[in-house]
Amino acid sequence: MYFCVITAVPVAPVNVSVSQLRSDSATITWSVPQGDTVIGYVISQQRQDGLMQRSIREVNSSSRACVLWDLDEDTHYSVQVQSIGLQGDSQPSHTVHFRTLEKSDHYPIGSIDDDPTMEGMDLNSNLQTGELLIVTTVLLLWAG
């Protein structure tokens, strides 16, 4: 008697949205349907004029947000998110379009919660073994 376990690739992320829009950055957030085994995400970003494409692949991550940096001001972009599963990547999410602000646009005065550099940061989390090894190596090289 043979048993066959079929593990499909996860479904595409849903509710992809853009928040904390600035002249040079934007935060992308998304949701994942329950039940899928997801081990990471791929965020694909493209300028509408086709001059630049970027893909960010995060593995071993449960984060549902990503800050896009080094964007050009007053520029139209599109972004899609894919889930990474044990058997492959999902189809891309629906495309979300946005335009970065101009540098002259004023940002609302806010707290650290409004800062995209702190988005998704758990200030109480412990360093994982790989991160600790990298930090230790960099410090030893710097001290030497």
TrEMBL record:
InterPro entries: FN3_dom, FN3_sf, FNDC_type_III_4/5, Ig-like_fold
Keywords: Glycoprotein, Membrane, Secreted, Transmembrane, Transmembrane helix
A Pfam family: fn3
Listed transmembrane segments: none
GO cellular component: extracellular region; plasma membrane
Protein location: Membrane; Secreted
Signal sequence interval, chain numbering: none
Protein name, UniProt field: Fibronectin type III domain containing 4b
SMART domains recorded: FN3 (SM00060)
Record membrane topology: Single-pass membrane protein
Organism: Hucho hucho (huchen)
Domain Fibronectin type-III per the UniProt entry, residue ranges: 12-103
Gene3D superfamilies linked to this entry: Immunoglobulins
